[in-house]
Structure formats: structure tokens, C-alpha cells
Design a protein that fits this description.
2 helices; single chain; alpha+beta; 3-stranded antiparallel sheet
Amino acid sequence: MSSFKFAGLKDFENNFVKVKFKASGNSFQYSVQVKENDFKKAELPLQYVSSNKSAASQTGLSPVMRIILIIVIALLGSMSAYFMAAYICRRRKIDL
């Protein structure tokens, strides 16, 4: 079994051409429909670009920055929980 993962052009459409991709096992087939004959260049992308990106990739943050952001948020949350608990404990001691 091959570990090759195809990352080339899949279905694509613009004003000039319509490309349909079909994979069957290890063979790849393209069906190309020319919409307008008077174009100079088809300008097909070399790789498939997914239109539905995950939320993590839409942020534009690197993995290291995401980890740092998670750590900062966790620290802020734990500090606020500590200070709220300390405030409640001090208040109960004064009221008694």
C-alpha cells in the first residue's frame, strides 16, 4: 500500500474552464470543459484549496502562540478563582 496522499487539483471552476476530478483506486481522471475559447491562460491552481477551513487555521496564530494564549487564559482564570475564594474567606471571618 502506498503512503502517497494526492494533493493536486480537485474540482475547480472559473469563467473559462470547469474541471471535475475523479479518483478510482490509484488512478486519477480529469474531465475538463472549456467554457470560453478566447482565454489566454486557464490559471488553474496547482493544489486543491479547501473552502472550509477549521477554526484553528482561520485565526492565523501559530501553534506556539496558541499554546501561550491557552496558558495565559488558564492563569488568568485560576488567579481570578483564587482571589474570589480569598475574598469570600476573609469576608466570612470578619462577619463571624
